[in-house]
């Protein structure tokens, strides 16, 4: 496998950041292509050729196109022969990772990104979200964080003592929670400690900082 890997991302996209972090942590070389999601970059004819579903992240690896963050992480782990702890070969340990990745889509991500989409993205296109819908998503987010807080009261990382691709996927989602008024330290201390643990790794910390959550949180508060 050569190094002709292209990754289409946006720095505020949580799934994009998980893929970038995994590559950086494992020394995987790639060409980063930033897609401007706020000015219609996903809907251009050029990008539709890359992904007709108009979503990021996307990778092109030797002319093979692959979408969906979790599929990409699994693929890169298999093709780049990364350390086993990221996505364990043991069936039981691997199932723990898969279980969290599947849970993530309809729980944590739905609760967090679902709110961000309605509070930030939809108004940019003149669409007013329903307040009741936002409240339901907020409830889902807090239930998700409560579940994670319980797990992380037992484990150092989400599935045990070692970091996995589940920690990356869920970690970058949690990084965005201040944008929807979540105070991790006071309500979910185990999640907050886990996030600090992730940020001790320079590759993860750099990408999290580049997301600009702190600056965007202040901007949102200034508008209220």
UniProtKB/TrEMBL annotation:
Pfam family, one: GST_N
Residue span(s) of domain GST N-terminal: 3-84
InterPro entries the UniProt entry points to: Glutathione-S-Trfase_C-like, Glutathione-S-Trfase_C_sf, Glutathione_S-Trfase, Glutathione_S-Trfase_N, GST_C, GSTT1/2/3, Thioredoxin-like_sf
Top-rank taxon: Eukaryota
GST C-terminal domain location: 90-224
Family: Belongs to the GST superfamily.
Protein name (record): Uncharacterized protein
Species of provenance: Euplotes crassus
